[in-house]
Design brief:
By secondary structure, this protein is α+β, with helices and mostly antiparallel strands. The protein has one domain: Glutaredoxin, CATH 3.40.30. The chain is 41% helix and 19% strand. The chain has four helices and five strands. Strands 2-1-3-4-5 form a five-stranded mixed beta sheet, covered by helices on one side. Strand 3 and strand 4 form a beta hairpin. Helix 3 crosses helix 4. The longest helix is centred in the first third of the chain and has 18 residues. The protein is globular and about 55 Å long. 26% of the residues are buried.
Length: 127
């Protein structure tokens, strides 16, 4: 096995610290992409790509992305739920990559709910 360089050790440290921060709730926003079979068929992977691109482009460390199964509203897929720390979650429906980017800028970064894509607010939270 090759010896680890200082850069390798730094990358390992950053990875472990990021995991600890997430476990301790060190984030201000959470995006849950509903990826049941119906969501995937409707384009949920496109949403995942869009949100991960936005996070990477801005080098954000306090926004996490999770996935879940079907939310029970197959005809409204693809869907996401956005949770900002201390606020009620918002479920967005019938999305595409452009709508996802708009929600990212307006709601996740700006704190303003994008009502034209929102289905419901409240009823589920993880913090």
């Amino acid at each position: 096995m090759a010896k680890l360089s200082i850069e390798d050790l730094k990358k390992i440290k950053e990875s472990v610290q990021a995991g600890v921060t997430l476990r301790e709730g060190g984030y201000r926003a959470k995006v849950n992409i509903h990826m049941g079979t119906c969501g995937i068929a409707a384009g949920a992977r496109e949403l995942m790509t869009a949100v991960l691109d936005e996070i990477q482009k801005r080098d954000l460390k306090d926004v996490i992305v999770t996935t879940s199964g079907c939310a029970g509203l197959c005809s409204r897929e693809p869907m996401i739920t956005v949770e900002l720390l201390g606020e009620a979650p918002v479920k967005y429906v019938e999305l595409d990559a452009d709508k996802m980017r708009e929600i990212f800028v307006e709601h996740i970064l700006g704190g303003k709910i994008v009502e034209k894509f929102a289905l419901a607010m409240g009823s589920e939270t993880t913090f």
